[in-house]
Amino acid sequence: MRGTNVKRTALLSLLSTIGFLLMFVEMPLPGFPVFLKIGVSEIPALIGAILFGPLAGVAVELIKNILHFLLTNQGGMAVGELSNFIAGSTFVVTSVFFIRKIQAKKVSFWVGTLAGTVAMAIIMSVANYFIFIPAYAYLMGSSVEGMVQFSQSANAGITSLWTLILYAILPFNLIKGIIEALITYPIYNRIRPAMQS
Question: Are 96 and 50 in contact (CB under 8 A)?
């Protein structure tokens, strides 16, 4: 039992470290404001949650974001890390809940990660409307209207905070979740036998 706990702790620590390092691997998407960049740092948390349960995935999300806040010191007062934590935790917990609920194992991963993607997109749309975009604007010494105008260079259809959510935040999180699910599936299938041995 103790050996199992040590192995689990070591693996979660490794996944947290990988998740932290993956936070530096980001790329912009054409047609989206430059502050929205696709990353894949939720993948280690999703793998940890599938193997050990949703709380393990949340722990990986928490540790990677704490590390990012402490070691990068970007002066954002942890707004980016909090946003990443909420997005990642929503995606991971919802995905694993459905993966474990669905009996048909061949489709459970895809149904679960689709549910996680939709949940993340909805939660982050609401959170960005009420919390994160106003917070980012304040920290940048700007306003919500300034953020909207800044975003128009990527998409002329963005004319208000509502359209920023509708045309940028919502589709961005849907794309992000789909990409992470597509990358995670073969990785998870490959390492699962070794982790369960």
Answer: yes
Does a structural domain hold residue 195? no
R_g of the chain, CA atoms, integer Å: 17
The count of C-alpha atoms lying within 13 angstroms of the C-alpha of 144, restricted to the half-sphere facing its C-beta, is 15
Cα distance from N-terminal residue to C-terminal residue, the chain: 14
For residue 192, is pLDDT > 60?
A: no
Judge if pTM exceeds 0.85: yes
Closest residue by Cα to residue 31 from 147, 155, 152, 164? 155
Q: Which residues pair with 52 in a beta bridge?
A: none
Range of the domain at 72: 2-25+36-189
Express each pLDDT in 89-113 by its tens digit. Answer: 999 999 999 999 998 877 999 999 9
Helix (H, G, I), strand (E, B) or coil at 27: strand
